[in-house]
Model the fold of this input.
Amino acid sequence: MNTAATPRRQLSRRLALTYGSLLLLVLAGVLWLVSQMQRNLVTTQLQEELQLGQAVFARALAQNQQQLTQAAKVLAADYGFREAIASRDQSTITSALQNHRGRINADISLAAGLDGDLLADSRDDQVSGLFPFPELLQQARLQGAASAIVSLDEQAYQLVVVTVRAPQPIAVIAMGFLIDAAVANDLQKLTGLHVSFLGRHREADGTQRWRLQASTLPPALTDSLAQQLPVQPDQAIQTLMLAEQAYQTLIVALAEQDGSEIAVLQRSLEQALAPHRQLQRYLLGLGLAALALALVATVILARGIVRPLQQLQTAAHRMEAGDYAVDEVIHRQDEIGDLAQAFNTMRETIASREQQILDLAYRDPLTTLPNRTYFTEQLTRLLGSAAPCAVLLLDLDRFKLINNTLGHALGDELLRAAGERLQSQLPSGAILARVGADEFAVLLPDAGDRAGRALAEQLVSIMQLPFVAGGQTVDLRVSLGYAVAPDDGKQTSALLRAVDVALYYSRQQRRHIVRFDPALQPFRAEHLSLLGDLRRAVAENELRLFYQPKVNLQGGDHNYCEALVRWQHPSRGFIPPIDFIPFAEQTGDIKRLTRWIIARALSQAREWQQQGIRMHIAVNISAHDLLDESLRDFLADSLERSTVSAECLGLEVTESGFIEEPERAMALLEQLRALGIKLAIDDFGTGYSSLAYLKKLPVQELKIDQTFIRQLRADGDDAAIVRSTIELGHNLGLQVVAEGIETREQALLLRDWNCDRGQGYHFSRPVPADDFLHWLQQTGAGLRV
Done:
């Protein structure tokens, strides 16, 4: 400062002798211009800070919601918890809620039945009353989950409600974070803004006013804030006067339905302008000193002032447009230099905050890898340039089991290790992102099918090496699907859908790597419209049952048949079962369809019984039906209503029906067998069941899949398999049925090999009930193989 003082005094004297009056006018104009620019800059900066603060606040709420939803869904999927809900075991429900609430430091947790009765409440051990938020309960029942900012006990909570399914909704659980002073302080540290939370309160006289719940403002200003806010505040950026101080203010509604909970983001205008007012004083001193300078010095000085100001103005406009890379280097030891330094400091601060926001928006906090949003944007950008690329989607098999067994901490460590190992194998330019709980995606630019498969094989191979986490060795297996642009899709959504389908089939078929193929599409677009039609067809009896005989190959009666569903759509014509049965399994409508088939088969059996024909009818059931705990009661009631003996009904289950939950499926089969229903394993030889399970299953019949029968010859490759299967079935005390018989030679071979019954086009196609009865009357006991 001493160095600058002498030149200023010399300039003041020279300006005073020459053009003092003129420079005085110039000085006034410069000071006015700088003042206006500073005020505009500060106002713009405060508005940007408020908007950035709003974005950070929204992101924090979204992260909290995601954390609450994930914790609630994990609890809702827990088998023991669902058992406790079903049995109304309050102590177990309360303990489970408290444990999961403690894991994420939630402040409140609730459980309630679908009728709204509370089952557990972390606020009160003596549970009574109704669920306090019926609208959220109803929304969760319809959509599976709901979330909102709610007011409870005059406090604001961020609450998430999810349904508990077993498999239908049986209850809801809710978890929430308290929005209090700690949240306000954290947001202030992150945004640099004052944060206040207020809730609308109704007084005894019926009037409404705002009640302060938490604030980072000085205590002297909080009462003034609550009093100045109207009952229905404007949510645009505005200026509020608190204790004669101006604050730029942005009001954010937390409770979207009624606006009863709000957050107020503020920054003092006076504090923001204070550094600039100091700068104005510096400029004023410099201007007064300039009065003493000569005309040439005045011109030089004027140019020295205007030029950097123009640079800063240009930089300010670039910052306004979002370009924070500019760094104005102005080597001056005066107010202009201070302004430039302050400007650069402000730029760096804003750029740093922008980067923090971008990290929150584009980076996975656990693995520090890019997230789904960033990956999608990069894929969109690459596809926009029409460049070829490959997209790989990799899923860690059995990760949920590993997570539940070893704990979430070791699970997180495994995810980080998996991300590091995958990253180490990627070529230059490839992008790795974590796009799901246990899913990673790779974007490989300038690559086709060959490069995509080569990288897929490399990643699958490296992931098969053991991991060490927490001192334990863990083996991970992965499923991987990949798709290539533009062959498999030219748009982002199409390519991501293609790679999702490939991964789905990789998991389903237990293949490590699957390349997308349009034939893999699980459903075509037109299948979606079949959902309503199928439900109507079941409700209005538009479906029909056809019957195919199961002929006694060793001679005797032919009173065995299989009921097969057929659909003659009123506008689309005949729809084969392959086009609607898998669709019904995926949507859950297979249970309704199975029950319709059983009811119709029992009705037909009763009709034939009244005509003096005792017919055993077999019906196929799916893997989904084996997990339906109400199936046993439905069958018992249906048999009782139809007056048909249980021995006249058979159920055929494919081998794949035992894969997911074999113990549960076996328990249901034991119950069905206890009713007297005959059980059979269908399509034997094409699934995954072991002989150990086959020995324990309560079945009486084994059906050899038609793939082994269609090309059957005495000297063919299938002969040994078929004969061994027949002997195996007989040794286990089972009757053996061969399906798919199309020639007399096949029927004779099977008869000679002691196969019990046969089914196929050689005897009869599936036909309507009347035609089947005619076939039975025509053939009778005189049918010959």
Notes: Residues 623 and 657 are 4 Å apart (CA to CA).
